[in-house]
Design goal:
Helices cover 93% and strands 0% of the residues. By secondary structure, the protein is mainly alpha-helical. The chain has a domain at 5-160: Helix Hairpins (Orthogonal Bundle), CATH 1.10.287. α3 runs antiparallel to α4. The termini are far apart. The relative contact order is 0.07. Belongs to the PspA/Vipp/IM30 family. Residues 137-208 are annotated as: Disordered. It comes from Bacillus seohaeanensis.
Length: 225
């Protein structure tokens, strides 16, 4: 009766992992499975509702027939009390017809009720299994996302310190060392040049003092004369 159980059994069965292995995107496949299960449950709910409606219809018909049989029984008694045997006979014949209908309808109602109860139970099982699969889906989705993140991180980390990156760092280190060496050489050249300038300036100052001293001696000598 429940053909729509087939897809759900496939999802909740051992084939789930195999299907996930083949899927390019397990998260999308899990969402698809859940949508199929939801569609199955909606179909089951519609079937259960239809069966319950059938059960209630048969129950009403059975109760109506039973009431009519009881009514005809009471009417037959009244007819006899009124000494109308013919009317009493016809009332009893009609009662027999209603009672026969009531008996048949009662059997149909009992079967319909049993079927409805069975369908309700199966629907409850489907919903319970769906809830379990929903929790499992959430867990699998979280694991899939975690695995994707770890893969991205591992790939990123594998690039750090790789040959290309390491060689790039080594080249930059060599350039920095070269810049530092050039800066030190420039400082040495500037220091050397400054020392030479200082010595030449000092020589000029010395010559200037000597000249002033000679001029002063010459002036004093003239004054003594």
């Amino acid at each position: 009766m429940f053909q729509f159980f087939k897809r759900m059994k496939t999802v909740v069965g051992s084939e789930l992992n195999a299907m996930l292995d083949k899927a390019e995107d397990p998260v999308k496949m899990l969402d698809q499975f859940m949508r199929e299960m939801e569609a199955d449950i909606r179909d089951a709910e519609a079937a259960v509702a239809k069966q319950i409606a059938n059960e209630k219809m048969l129950q009403k018909k059975y109760e109506d027939a039973e009431k009519m049989a009881t009514k005809r029984q009471e009417q037959a008694v009244k007819a006899l009390e009124a000494e109308n045997e013919d009317l009493a006979r016809r009332a009893l014949e009609d009662k027999k017809t209603y009672q026969s209908q009531a008996d048949t309808l009662h059997e149909s109602y009992i079967r319909a009720k049993e079927d409805a109860d069975t369908l309700r139970t199966k629907l409850d099982e489907m919903k319970s299994e769906y809830n379990e699969m929903k929790l499992k889906k959430d867990s699998l989705k979280a694991r899939a996302e975690s695995a994707k993140t770890r893969t991205k991180m591992n790939r990123a980390m594998s690039g750090i310190g790789g040959d290309q990156s390491r060689k790039g760092f080594e080249r930059m280190e060599e350039k920095v060392l070269q810049f530092e060496a050039e800066a030190e050489t420039s400082d040495d050249m500037r220091s050397s040049s400054r020392s030479l300038d200082d010595e030449l300036d000092a020589l000029d100052k010395k010559n200037s003092v000597d000249d002033e001293l000679a001029a002063l001696k010459k002036q004093i000598g003239k004054e003594k004369e």
